[in-house]
């Protein structure tokens, strides 16, 4: 995290011959609708060269749509998007030469081996044969796929496919990479490998835009985070800035009996109370340490309400949405007393 802050600071400073660090990605007023459904409703953001931007948002927020427009797979209705100064609509050919894309769903040839998939894409990019061979070797090693490299992809596990898919998008060493939920469905080890690779890429100057539904992931990887919901940006900033808005650690209480839930809500009547009826949980921002815990438990006990469990937890993506929008990603999952902020 320390490195990231330093880098962010550095990227904002004047570099070289007093030239400000450039934006590798610039998005202005992007709008996209499918019939009546407005999927993107005026999105603006920029990503400085050599940094990571995480586009964070729930299902259907518009993350993949944004990535598809930026990677020239989809035309916007209006607005503008530039990759290293090139317009994704008017100069789409040139843009395609400088980007790599790993989609939300792996795009590999099932019947080819790992090596053959990499070679095929290398040839499509018209790279020199020798370069393709060397880059393939490097990528297989980096992604821990050497042993599986001569097997058809149809024999690969989900995590191996995901890693090969990312390797394929890196064969031409593009300066800008889009990763659409790169770690969804990966086991913890593969997820860490993926994180390490992403960090290596960025430290060598690559600009990355990744989408995720995971606050933790955005926290680990991103210099800046843009939170979108319903096609609009609802928050933007560094992970620390967002966390400050979300609030600190939360004390979460699970009520034993569903029939006691409404009463429990009245008893734990604090500002910033979040609750989830289905899970029978109530949570409040931690402030009074042990004193607050004792107080809440004794209030519930006085009201004759049995508590099943108590825990402390960090803010989750749900808390971000609860705090920022006043409702959960899927409203039926929970509710909040918080008024919408910002
Ligand atoms: N081709 C299409 N036709 C009609 N609606 C579409 C189409 N593609 C996407 N949508 C709608 O646009 C909205 C945004 O979709 P998008 O795939 O960008 O969301 P997302 O943030 O990537 O979600 P997820 O986390 O589920 O991947 C959704 O409501 C989706 O149903
Ligand atoms: Mg998506």
Alpha-carbon distance between the two ends:
26 Å
Query: Please, how many helices?
Result: 12
Judged by helices, strands and strand pairing, the structural class is alpha+beta
Taking pLDDT < 50 over at least 5 consecutive residues as the criterion, the unreliable ranges are 1-16, 329-342
What is the topology, as strand order, of the major beta sheet? Answer: 8-9-10-5-11-12
| CATH architecture assignment of the largest domain | 3-Layer(aba) Sandwich
What is the residue-averaged pLDDT?
85
Overall shape: elongated
**Which range does the strand content fall in?**
25-35%
How many strand units? 17
CATH homologous superfamily designation of the largest domain = P-loop containing nucleotide triphosphate hydrolases
Please state the CA-atom Rg, rounded to the nearest Å.
Answer: 23 Å
Can you tell me the CATH class of the largest domain? Alpha Beta
Please write the string of helix (H) and strand (E) elements. Answer: HEEEEEHEEHEHHHEHEHEEHEHEEHEHE
Structure description:
The protein has 342 residues and is an alpha+beta fold. The chain folds into two domains: 2-244, P-loop containing nucleotide triphosphate hydrolases (Rossmann fold); 247-336, Alpha-Beta Plaits. It has helices spanning 2-12, 63-70, 92-97, 114-124, 129-142, 158-169, 188-203, 215-221, 239-246, 261-267, 289-302, 317-325, and strands at residues 14-15, 19-20, 23-34, 37-48, 52-56, 78-83, 86-87, 99-102, 176-180, 207-212, 224-229, 232-237, 250-255, 274-276, 281-285, 307-313, 335-336. It has a six-stranded mixed beta sheet, with helices on both faces. A hairpin with a 3-residue loop joins β1 and β2 (19-20). It is elongated. Mean pLDDT is 85; it is low at 1-16 and 329-342. The structure holds adenosine-5'-triphosphate and magnesium ion. Residues 63-64, 104, 180 line the site of magnesium ion (MG).
């Amino acid at each position: 995290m320390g490195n990231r802050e330093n880098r962010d600071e550095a990227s904002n400073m004047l570099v070289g011959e007093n030239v400000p660090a450039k934006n590798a990605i610039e998005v202005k007023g992007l709008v996209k609708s499918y019939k009546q459904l407005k999927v993107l409703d005026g999105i603006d953001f920029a990503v400085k060269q050599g940094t990571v931007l995480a586009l964070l948002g729930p299902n259907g927020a518009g993350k993949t749509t944004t990535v598809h427009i930026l990677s020239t797979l989809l035309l916007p209705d209006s607005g503008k998007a530039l990759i290293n100064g090139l317009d994704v609509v008017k100069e789409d050919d040139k843009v395609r030469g400088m980007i790599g894309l790993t989609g939300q769903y792996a795009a590999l040839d099932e019947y080819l081996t790992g090596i053959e998939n990499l070679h095929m894409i290398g040839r499509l990019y018209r790279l020199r044969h020798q370069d393709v061979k060397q880059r393939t070797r490097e990528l297989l090693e980096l992604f821990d796929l050497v042993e599986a490299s001569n097997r058809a992809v149809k024999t690969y596990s989900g995590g191996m496919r995901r890693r090969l898919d990312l390797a394929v998008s890196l064969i031409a060493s593009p300066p800008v990479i889009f990763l659409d939920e790169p770690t969804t469905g990966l086991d913890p080890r593969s997820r860490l490998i993926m994180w390490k690779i992403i960090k290596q890429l960025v430290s060598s100057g690559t600009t990355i835009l990744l989408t995720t539904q995971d606050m933790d992931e955005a926290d680990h990887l991103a210099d800046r985070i843009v939170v979108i919901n319903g096609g609009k940006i609802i928050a933007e900033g560094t992970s620390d800035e967002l966390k400050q808005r979300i609030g600190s650690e939360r004390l979460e209480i699970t009520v034993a009996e569903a029939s006691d839930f409404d009463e429990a809500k009245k008893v734990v009547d604090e500002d910033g109370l979040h609750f989830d009826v289905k899970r029978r949980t109530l949570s409040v921002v931690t402030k009074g340490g042990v004193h607050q815990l004792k107080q809440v438990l004794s209030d519930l006990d006085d009201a004759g309400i049995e508590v099943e469990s108590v825990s402390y937890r960090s803010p989750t993506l749900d808390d971000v949405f609860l705090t920022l929008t006043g409702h959960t990603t899927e409203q039926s999952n929970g509710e909040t007393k918080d008024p919408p902020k910002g």
